[in-house]
Amino acid sequence: MDNREIMEVISKFEFDGTFEECIPFGSGHINDTFRLTYTTAEGMKYYILQRMNKSVFANPEELMENVKGVTSWLRKKIQENGGDVERETLNLVSDKEGHPYYKDSMGEYWRVYLFIENATCFDLVENENDFYQSAVAFGHFQRLLADYPAETLHETIKDFHNTVVRFQNFCKSVETDVCGRAADVQKEIQFVMEREKLAHALCDLQAEGKLPLRVTHNDTKLNNVMIDDQTGKAICVIDLDTVMPGLSANDFGDSIRFGATTAAEDERNLSKVHFDLHLYEVYVKGFIEGCGGALTELEMEMLPMGAILMTFECGMRFLADHLEGDHYFKIHRENHNLDRCRTQFQLVSEMEEKLPEMKAIVEKYK
Ligand code: ADP
Ligand code: GN1
Ligand code: MG
Q1: Is the pLDDT score of 1 beyond 80?
Q2: For the whole prediction, is pTM greater than 0.85?
């Protein structure tokens, strides 16, 4: 990305102070994120600048309508609860014409958020309190949005956590095999094919009206929540691109996938990758507390299934992207998506073995 493009974009937004620098920031797989530094009379001031991923999000304008709607709603709730509106939710900075995003001359969409200072996003669970805090935060996030008019939200990615459709798309990637990579990953393909029935577990219950649709985050990785450096509390849920109506078990499950493990999502040495039942328990406790009694009996019963399904789905998505030539998730080395897929499948196998214990833990806290 050239400097001129960035400078053009920066000139379209209203910032405090004098521009100092723009550096790439964070470790997200989807958007291009930068931290902007300004000097003001009171000291340094930072902002987050993001170029939205247009190939992932087909309609950035609708997406920004969701973000605007949800952040305004959260702001109101936080105000009512006497919280800090600049740290407990994302805050959009409008462009000079008052729009929540700017479309540049190349047709790229950009947005700016206030930078949440003295807080950190972790890529790995470094201490279990962080994980517990993130659980409370994601549960609480769902509760704060429980009476949001869900029908006004756009579906930013169609069938995002529809595991049945994900399975069908995966089969198409295998059949097409555009990069000729399928022959080398037969074991992983087989792993998916053996689990066609599994892919239906939650979708069928939803279709039968047994599981309610809620406003969910849909990308509840630990690194999508900011933990306050001083208090150790989760202060803000970020990355709102996929907030849509969805299943509570999937929000729960995606956090378990990413956090209740002994290794990074892209660890190459599989002997280091294990499902961590203790961290799972820590998260169950926090999430159920955070939801504050909002979940139905069946929703709670299905939390362990959400963990298995989100991990399976993510592995399937990584493998499909590997087969399709890595066009979706950003990769930083050869076979990066294949490595990611393998950690996920290893976790799925271990969760399948430990399902009775996982269920017993939910029983203990519900
Ligand atoms: P992606 O969809 O690519 O994951 P995110 O919206 O999660 O993009 O942002 C990527 C990273 O940028 C986050 O993991 C976090 O480290 C950082 N970040 C995003 N928003 C803020 C913010 N308002 N304040 C501070 N850091 C942020
Ligand atoms: C992506 O945007 P980011 O990096 O927080 C992806 C998630 C995956 C995750 C895997 C919009 O999340 O669905 O679970 O990578 N987000 C999108 O790490 O596809
Ligand atoms: Mg993110």
Answers
A1: no
A2: yes
